Amino acid sequence: MDQVSLGKAGPTVSKIGLGCMGMSGMYGPSDRTESIATFHAALDAGMTLIDTGDFYGMGHNEMLIGEALKGQDRDRVTLSVKFGALRDAAGSWLGYDCRPKAVRNFLAYTLQRLGVDHIDIYRPARLDPDVPIEETVGAIADLVKAGYVRHIGLSELGSETIRRAAAVHPISDLQIEYSLISRGIEDDILPTCRALGIGITAYGVLSRGLISGHWQKGAAERGDFRAASPRFQEGNVDRNLALVDALKRVSDAKGASVAQIAIAWVAAQGEDIVPLIGARRRDRLAEALGSQSVRLTPEDLVAIERAVPRDAASGARYPEAQLAHMDSERH
């Protein structure tokens, strides 16, 4: 697999990364054995960037990855970890805590659950409105000096906050949603990151399965994030699936799957953009990896944008209550 530098200050990673959130219940039940087998298949395929969060399954995801890492070469893997989100015993979201002492506490538990002595990229999951980003990044910088963290990343931040963070310590990458139907970063955030030499790790490249070519209306189960996601709601989902049908005509002509075209489109937007694939099954992983063989011509890109015009999606990418707390959504 091709390797790329994750920003000017970041590590060299695989051109496609593995996002592990779905292995810990965010999209309904998952199979532990199949999740670990998928993780190993990803490593065998040359994927080195592994993304998780300490709040995925309230620590479950880190423990799962820790189990999957046993017997593997730790130096082959670039572990990217988000922290700061608070949850209660029922799984509800309670806000964020990115105070310096909280940063140190979160990291200590993460190292224990993963069974490693350092994290390659450590990043706050969101901006804590009560803590200046300079304090949070400064705390992670202290952990870099102590050897517990290698690089500092960010997630879902707006341009002003990104600049403030980068003034404290070099930033490897910004993790943010980016797909054919979520293109808001193109206006300001992406140019800001490029000016600062900050890479992009793009999550939601298949919009949580909506533009994968596999989603069926009404498939979200209880406990699945998509049951509350605006784009999957009645009145929106049919219009969004019509976009998928249009994209399928392009993918069929190209001899690829819808998912492969959608992933290839994100990858084609720049060498500084690394798509994260949220596969939790080996067959879905294999399909996603097939996107590397898809070479999009200028004519293909025109056809794709004709099928799925910018801002054509119906519904926001998160419920309004969540968007209200996202720094990346402030203009």
UniProtKB/TrEMBL annotation:
Q: Which GO terms describe its cellular component?
A: cytoplasm
Is Oxidoreductase set as a keyword in this record? yes
Q: Name one GO molecular function term.
A: oxidoreductase activity
The record, for Pfam families, names: Aldo_ket_red (PF00248)
Pinpoint the NADP-dependent oxidoreductase domain residues: 15-307
Highest rank taxon of the organism? Bacteria
Keyword annotations for this protein, in alphabetical order, are: Oxidoreductase
Q: Which PANTHER family match?
A: AFLATOXIN B1 ALDEHYDE REDUCTASE (PTHR43625), ALDO-KETO REDUCTASE YAKC [NADP(+)] (PTHR43625:SF40)
Protein name (database record): Aldo/keto reductase
Q: What is the lineage of its organism?
A: Bacteria, Pseudomonadati, Pseudomonadota, Alphaproteobacteria, Hyphomicrobiales
